[in-house]
Write a structure and sequence with these properties.
Length: 195
């Protein structure tokens, strides 16, 4: 084999190895959202205790709140829920839903879909899945989500802090987000979480 052919084969092997490093998944009912097949990714749910829910409202969603928006390359200070931030060209925003059994979802909504539908909050239809737990006196969550621009699915650990109607979500040395409690019709949230 020539040296060039060996290099190409090595590159192909490394590319296939990299693509195969994500979690094994299956598609949810919407046809494109994915969930992990192996239940071991949710193993930290053994660290969940109902007392962790004392500051968490499981009958609402917590929707993304913008403090900064980017218009082109320019950053502008704002203080508005993402669903009402019409100056932002990106129309998608996140909402968290917490369940009484310590599980949670991160759903991605689009502000152009102003009429909320039950399937938007159905964990069998859409959404990223997670488990809530306490570790070293911190409220944490393992979220199974897209972890790369190529669509690779993996597990990230995030920190939650609840203060009144506000949820602060952070990932160590990566990012911080704010979410505000929003009451929506209970029939939209009438779903079970079992993973």
């Amino acid at each position: 084999m020539t040296l060039i052919l060996k290099k190409h084969l090595l590159l192909i092997f490394l590319a296939l190895l990299f693509v195969g490093c994500g979690l094994k998944t299956y598609k949810l009912k919407n046809g494109y959202s994915k969930a992990a097949i192996n239940k071991k990714v949710y193993s930290n749910k053994v660290k969940f205790n109902e007392s962790l829910l004392k500051n968490i409202d499981t009958t609402v969603i917590y929707e993304e709140f913008n403090t900064v928006s980017y218009f082109g390359l320019e950053a502008t200070n704002v203080n508005i829920v993402a669903r009402k931030n019409y100056r932002d060209p990106y129309t998608n925003y996140g909402v968290y839903r917490f369940y009484k059994n310590g599980l949670f979802n991160l759903f991605i909504l689009n502000r152009n879909d102003s009429i909320l539908q039950k399937e938007m909050f159905d964990p069998l239809y859409t959404g990223w899945r997670g488990v809530l737990y306490k570790e070293k006196e911190e409220l944490k969550g393992d979220l199974i989500t897209q972890v790369s621009g190529t669509g690779t699915i993996g597990k990230i650990t995030i920190n939650f802090q609840f203060k009144g109607d506000t949820l602060f979500v952070s990932r160590k040395n990566k990012w911080n987000y704010i979410y505000i409690k929003r009451k929506i019709p209970t029939e939209l949230l009438n779903h079970k979480a079992e993973w």
